[in-house]
């Protein structure tokens, strides 16, 4: 049995196969992105429903104001020094 395969047939098959593989990878990636968007939306909905003004006020009442000011001041000072000495 004599089988002849031309270079153009090989190229055509390779291009077709490559297109199939790329399409498959793109579909997988789009499905993954959609899944992450769905999870993000679900988390956002739960947080929006569960975090109320009273909960935020309760949390803020429990925070030591002097410690908070000290932490913020230190963080801001560290960031400023990092920016100054960055170059």
- Molecular shape: elongated
Rounded to the nearest angstrom, the distance between the terminal CA atoms is: 73 Å
Number of helices: 3
Compressed to H and E, one letter per element, the order equals HHH
Give the quaternary arrangement of the chains. single chain
Proportion of residues in helical segments: over 70%
Q: Low-confidence parts, pLDDT < 50 over ≥5 residues?
A: none
For the biggest sheet, the summary is: none
Give the overall average pLDDT. 91
Number of domains: 1
Strand portion, in percent?
under 5%
Q: Could you tell me the radius of gyration in angstroms? A: 29 Å
Q: What is the β-strand count?
A: 0
Quick overview:
The protein has 87 residues and is an all-alpha fold. Helices cover 85% and strands 0% of the residues. It is elongated, with a radius of gyration of 29 Å.
Fold blueprint:
Elements: H1 7-50, H2 53-62, H3 65-84
């Amino acid at each position: 049995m004599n089988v002849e395969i031309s270079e153009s047939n090989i190229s055509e098959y390779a291009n077709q196969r490559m297109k199939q593989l790329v399409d498959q990878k793109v579909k997988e990636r789009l499905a993954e992105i959609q899944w992450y968007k769905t999870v993000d939306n679900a988390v956002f909905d739960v947080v929006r429903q569960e975090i109320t003004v009273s909960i935020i006020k309760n949390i803020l009442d429990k925070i030591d104001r002097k410690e908070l000011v000290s932490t913020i001041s230190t963080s801001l000072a560290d960031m400023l020094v990092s920016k100054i000495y960055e170059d």
